[in-house]
Amino acid sequence: MHPVVEKLLALQKIDSRVAQAQRKLDAVPNETAKRRSALTRLTAERDAVKNRIREIEVEIKDLEVRVGGIETAIKKQEEHRDNAQNASTFEAARHRIQLLSEDRDQLQSRELTLIEEQEALQPKLQELEEKVAAETEVFEAYLKEAERLEAELREERDRIAASREEYLDGIPPAQLSQYDEIFRSRGGIAVVALESDHCSGCYTRITPNDRAKLGSGSAIVNCKSCGRFLYAP
Ligand SMILES: [Zn+2]
Prior knowledge:
The protein is mainly α. The protein contains four helices and three strands; from the N terminus they run H-H-H-E-E-H-E. It has two domains: 146 residues, Helix Hairpins, CATH 1.10.287; 59 residues, no CATH class. Helices cover 76% and strands 4% of the residues. It has a three-stranded mixed sheet with strand order 2-1-3. Strand 1 and strand 2 form a beta hairpin. It is rod-shaped. Zinc ion binds next to loops.
Protein backbone atom coordinates (compact mmCIF):
# COMPACT_ATOMS: atom_id res chain seq x y z
CA MET A 1 0.00 0.00 0.00
CA HIS A 2 1.24 3.49 -0.75
CA PRO A 3 2.51 4.99 2.55
CA VAL A 4 0.33 8.12 2.24
CA VAL A 5 -2.80 6.02 1.64
CA GLU A 6 -1.85 3.87 4.63
CA LYS A 7 -1.72 7.02 6.76
CA LEU A 8 -5.00 8.25 5.32
CA LEU A 9 -6.60 4.91 6.16
CA ALA A 10 -5.42 5.21 9.77
CA LEU A 11 -6.70 8.79 9.86
CA GLN A 12 -10.06 7.65 8.50
CA LYS A 13 -10.41 5.18 11.40
CA ILE A 14 -10.00 8.08 13.83
CA ASP A 15 -12.37 10.34 11.90
CA SER A 16 -14.98 7.57 11.70
CA ARG A 17 -14.91 7.14 15.46
CA VAL A 18 -15.29 10.89 15.95
CA ALA A 19 -18.18 10.93 13.45
CA GLN A 20 -19.83 7.97 15.15
CA ALA A 21 -19.61 9.64 18.57
CA GLN A 22 -21.02 12.80 16.99
CA ARG A 23 -23.93 10.89 15.42
CA LYS A 24 -24.80 9.33 18.78
CA LEU A 25 -24.54 12.76 20.36
CA ASP A 26 -26.86 14.26 17.74
CA ALA A 27 -29.41 11.50 18.32
CA VAL A 28 -29.86 12.36 22.00
CA PRO A 29 -31.86 15.63 21.56
CA ASN A 30 -34.12 13.88 19.03
CA GLU A 31 -34.85 11.09 21.46
CA THR A 32 -35.47 13.65 24.21
CA ALA A 33 -37.91 15.59 21.99
CA LYS A 34 -39.74 12.38 21.04
CA ARG A 35 -40.16 11.35 24.67
CA ARG A 36 -41.14 14.85 25.71
CA SER A 37 -43.90 15.08 23.12
CA ALA A 38 -45.24 11.63 24.10
CA LEU A 39 -45.49 12.84 27.69
CA THR A 40 -47.10 16.11 26.57
CA ARG A 41 -49.71 14.15 24.61
CA LEU A 42 -50.49 11.99 27.61
CA THR A 43 -50.78 15.04 29.88
CA ALA A 44 -53.08 16.74 27.37
CA GLU A 45 -55.27 13.63 27.28
CA ARG A 46 -55.53 13.68 31.08
CA ASP A 47 -56.30 17.42 31.11
CA ALA A 48 -59.06 16.94 28.54
CA VAL A 49 -60.75 14.34 30.74
CA LYS A 50 -60.29 16.55 33.81
CA ASN A 51 -61.81 19.53 32.01
CA ARG A 52 -64.75 17.47 30.80
CA ILE A 53 -65.46 16.35 34.37
CA ARG A 54 -65.34 19.97 35.52
CA GLU A 55 -67.69 21.03 32.72
CA ILE A 56 -70.12 18.30 33.73
CA GLU A 57 -70.03 19.46 37.37
CA VAL A 58 -70.86 23.01 36.32
CA GLU A 59 -73.72 21.86 34.08
CA ILE A 60 -75.14 19.58 36.79
CA LYS A 61 -75.15 22.47 39.29
CA ASP A 62 -76.93 24.64 36.77
CA LEU A 63 -79.49 21.91 36.09
CA GLU A 64 -80.14 21.49 39.82
CA VAL A 65 -80.83 25.19 40.18
CA ARG A 66 -83.25 25.07 37.24
CA VAL A 67 -85.00 21.94 38.56
CA GLY A 68 -85.37 23.67 41.94
CA GLY A 69 -86.98 26.67 40.25
CA ILE A 70 -89.41 24.46 38.37
CA GLU A 71 -90.37 22.57 41.52
CA THR A 72 -91.16 25.83 43.28
CA ALA A 73 -93.33 26.82 40.32
CA ILE A 74 -95.11 23.45 40.41
CA LYS A 75 -95.93 23.90 44.10
CA LYS A 76 -97.42 27.29 43.35
CA GLN A 77 -99.55 25.83 40.57
CA GLU A 78 -100.65 23.01 42.88
CA GLU A 79 -101.92 25.64 45.31
CA HIS A 80 -103.81 27.34 42.50
CA ARG A 81 -105.25 24.03 41.46
CA ASP A 82 -106.28 23.02 45.00
CA ASN A 83 -107.89 26.41 45.66
CA ALA A 84 -109.55 26.66 42.28
CA GLN A 85 -113.00 28.21 42.39
CA ASN A 86 -114.07 26.91 39.03
CA ALA A 87 -113.29 24.22 36.51
CA SER A 88 -111.41 26.43 34.07
CA THR A 89 -108.95 27.74 36.74
CA PHE A 90 -108.47 24.18 37.91
CA GLU A 91 -107.83 22.99 34.36
CA ALA A 92 -105.39 25.84 33.62
CA ALA A 93 -103.34 25.04 36.75
CA ARG A 94 -103.40 21.33 36.01
CA HIS A 95 -102.18 22.02 32.48
CA ARG A 96 -99.33 24.23 33.70
CA ILE A 97 -98.28 21.61 36.22
CA GLN A 98 -98.14 19.07 33.45
CA LEU A 99 -95.97 21.29 31.25
CA LEU A 100 -93.67 22.17 34.16
CA SER A 101 -93.32 18.51 35.08
CA GLU A 102 -92.34 17.65 31.55
CA ASP A 103 -89.64 20.35 31.62
CA ARG A 104 -88.38 19.09 34.97
CA ASP A 105 -88.26 15.49 33.74
CA GLN A 106 -86.30 16.54 30.70
CA LEU A 107 -83.73 18.39 32.82
CA GLN A 108 -83.48 15.49 35.24
CA SER A 109 -82.96 13.06 32.41
CA ARG A 110 -80.15 15.28 31.08
CA GLU A 111 -78.69 15.34 34.60
CA LEU A 112 -78.76 11.56 34.72
CA THR A 113 -76.94 11.28 31.40
CA LEU A 114 -74.27 13.66 32.69
CA ILE A 115 -73.86 11.74 35.94
CA GLU A 116 -73.37 8.55 33.95
CA GLU A 117 -70.75 10.22 31.78
CA GLN A 118 -69.00 11.57 34.85
CA GLU A 119 -68.98 8.14 36.48
CA ALA A 120 -67.47 6.62 33.38
CA LEU A 121 -64.79 9.33 33.23
CA GLN A 122 -63.67 9.05 36.85
CA PRO A 123 -61.79 5.72 36.52
CA LYS A 124 -60.36 6.92 33.21
CA LEU A 125 -59.02 10.04 34.90
CA GLN A 126 -57.58 7.94 37.71
CA GLU A 127 -55.85 5.70 35.18
CA LEU A 128 -54.45 8.68 33.27
CA GLU A 129 -53.24 10.36 36.47
CA GLU A 130 -51.31 7.21 37.34
CA LYS A 131 -49.92 6.94 33.83
CA VAL A 132 -48.79 10.58 33.80
CA ALA A 133 -47.12 10.17 37.18
CA ALA A 134 -45.31 6.99 36.10
CA GLU A 135 -44.28 8.40 32.71
CA THR A 136 -43.05 11.64 34.29
CA GLU A 137 -40.85 9.61 36.59
CA VAL A 138 -39.49 7.61 33.63
CA PHE A 139 -38.87 10.80 31.66
CA GLU A 140 -37.01 12.48 34.52
CA ALA A 141 -34.81 9.42 34.95
CA TYR A 142 -34.20 9.43 31.20
CA LEU A 143 -33.21 13.12 31.27
CA LYS A 144 -30.58 12.44 33.90
CA GLU A 145 -29.31 9.48 31.91
CA ALA A 146 -29.30 11.51 28.67
CA GLU A 147 -27.26 14.24 30.32
CA ARG A 148 -24.76 11.68 31.54
CA LEU A 149 -24.63 10.01 28.11
CA GLU A 150 -24.12 13.33 26.32
CA ALA A 151 -21.25 14.28 28.60
CA GLU A 152 -19.70 10.86 28.05
CA LEU A 153 -20.06 11.02 24.26
CA ARG A 154 -18.75 14.56 24.12
CA GLU A 155 -15.76 13.54 26.19
CA GLU A 156 -15.17 10.49 23.97
CA ARG A 157 -15.47 12.53 20.77
CA ASP A 158 -13.08 15.21 22.02
CA ARG A 159 -10.59 12.65 23.31
CA ILE A 160 -10.47 10.86 19.94
CA ALA A 161 -10.40 14.14 18.01
CA ALA A 162 -7.46 15.31 20.12
CA SER A 163 -5.43 12.32 19.00
CA ARG A 164 -6.02 13.18 15.33
CA GLU A 165 -3.02 15.51 15.21
CA GLU A 166 -0.48 12.69 15.47
CA TYR A 167 -2.04 10.89 12.48
CA LEU A 168 -1.48 13.88 10.20
CA ASP A 169 2.27 13.50 10.26
CA GLY A 170 3.61 12.60 6.79
CA ILE A 171 0.41 13.36 4.87
CA PRO A 172 1.02 16.05 2.21
CA PRO A 173 -1.39 19.03 2.51
CA ALA A 174 -2.86 18.45 -0.97
CA GLN A 175 -3.85 14.84 -0.18
CA LEU A 176 -5.06 15.83 3.26
CA SER A 177 -7.45 18.48 1.96
CA GLN A 178 -8.58 16.09 -0.80
CA TYR A 179 -9.22 13.44 1.84
CA ASP A 180 -11.11 15.91 4.08
CA GLU A 181 -13.31 16.98 1.18
CA ILE A 182 -14.17 13.38 0.20
CA PHE A 183 -14.74 12.36 3.82
CA ARG A 184 -17.22 15.22 4.20
CA SER A 185 -19.02 14.78 0.90
CA ARG A 186 -19.01 10.96 0.62
CA GLY A 187 -20.65 9.89 3.86
CA GLY A 188 -17.48 9.64 5.92
CA ILE A 189 -15.73 7.16 3.62
CA ALA A 190 -12.73 8.54 1.75
CA VAL A 191 -10.38 5.55 1.61
CA VAL A 192 -11.72 2.23 0.31
CA ALA A 193 -10.43 -1.21 -0.58
CA LEU A 194 -10.41 -2.61 -4.04
CA GLU A 195 -12.85 -5.48 -4.42
CA SER A 196 -12.20 -7.70 -7.44
CA ASP A 197 -11.05 -4.73 -9.52
CA HIS A 198 -13.91 -2.51 -8.39
CA CYS A 199 -13.92 0.52 -6.11
CA SER A 200 -15.81 -0.75 -3.05
CA GLY A 201 -17.13 2.78 -2.49
CA CYS A 202 -19.07 3.13 -5.74
CA TYR A 203 -18.51 -0.23 -7.55
CA THR A 204 -16.87 1.33 -10.58
CA ARG A 205 -14.35 -0.93 -12.32
CA ILE A 206 -10.78 0.40 -12.35
CA THR A 207 -8.35 0.24 -15.25
CA PRO A 208 -5.64 -2.49 -15.50
CA ASN A 209 -3.08 0.31 -15.26
CA ASP A 210 -4.50 1.52 -11.92
CA ARG A 211 -4.77 -2.09 -10.80
CA ALA A 212 -1.04 -2.51 -11.40
CA LYS A 213 -0.20 0.69 -9.55
CA LEU A 214 -2.28 -0.40 -6.58
CA GLY A 215 -0.62 -3.82 -6.60
CA SER A 216 2.83 -2.34 -6.35
CA GLY A 217 1.86 0.53 -4.06
CA SER A 218 3.94 2.80 -6.26
CA ALA A 219 1.36 5.57 -6.72
CA ILE A 220 -1.70 7.09 -5.10
CA VAL A 221 -4.80 6.00 -7.03
CA ASN A 222 -8.18 7.66 -6.73
CA CYS A 223 -11.37 6.16 -8.09
CA LYS A 224 -12.19 7.86 -11.41
CA SER A 225 -15.85 7.94 -10.50
CA CYS A 226 -16.17 8.83 -6.80
CA GLY A 227 -12.67 10.17 -6.19
CA ARG A 228 -12.03 8.00 -3.14
CA PHE A 229 -8.51 6.86 -2.35
CA LEU A 230 -8.08 3.20 -3.25
CA TYR A 231 -5.91 0.46 -1.80
CA ALA A 232 -5.45 -3.20 -2.62
CA PRO A 233 -6.07 -5.23 0.50
ZN1 LIG B 1 -15.46 4.86 -6.50
